[in-house]
Amino acid sequence: MLRDKNLIPLSHQHQHALALCVRIDRGVEAGKSDPEPWLAEIESLFGQEIGSHFLAEESVLFPAAERFSELAPLVGELRREHDEMRDFFSQAIARKLDGNGVRILGQTLSEHIRKEERQLFEGMQRLMNEEELARLGEALNQQLANSSEACLLPNEATRLKPRNR
Question: In this structure, are residues 24 and 46 in contact, taking their beta carbons and an 8 Å threshold?
Fold first, then answer.
């Protein structure tokens, strides 16, 4: 299903976070096991986008979705995942994650984003009318006004080289 324009700002931020998740996964495969550069990048992304993204979802998106009984259990699950990921991000910022912890954070974040995109957003688009989606979009834009719109560029240590074929 084509993403409704009112949810696109969240989807753009999801793309930024997924790009980091993919690079973490490929970095692990390529043997880039020093966690410090990844932790620095995770801290930057959390500060620029993810922190405000979580707040926008929790204060605007999730309450709108919870009005629908078929989405309420999913929203409860997503809220618990936010709590789990906040713990991961806190550990990353405090430099308490090793390389395996960074890998798990990347996997957990990727799975969470895909669940929001494929289940929550699709369900909301199916259940909400255009007017409801427009109000939701306005509220999300207000909530996200201070977050970055630029994709965070990898630092030298987390930039991956093209794969040899």
Answer: no
Candidates 11, 76, 16; CA nearest to 46 is 16
Q: pLDDT digit of tens for each residue in the chain (165 aa)? A: 799 999 999 999 999 999 999 999 998 888 877 899 999 999 999 999 999 999 999 999 999 999 999 999 999 999 999 999 999 999 999 999 999 999 999 999 999 999 999 999 999 999 999 999 999 999 999 999 877 554 455 556 565 565 565
Q: Which two tokens stand for residue 32?
A: 């880039």
Cα–Cα distance for residue pair 50/120, rounded to 1 Å: 18
Query: Two tokens at 59?
Result: 């204060």
Rg of the chain's alpha carbons, rounded to an integer? 16
Domain layout of the chain by residue ranges:
8-143
Neighbours of 118 (CB within 10 A): 11
What are 18-23's contacts with CB under 8 Å, separation 24+?
18/110, 18/113, 19/151, 20/45, 20/106, 20/109, 20/152, 21/106, 21/107, 21/109, 21/110, 21/113, 22/110, 23/154, 23/158, 23/160
CATH code for the structural domain at 8-143? 1.20.120.520
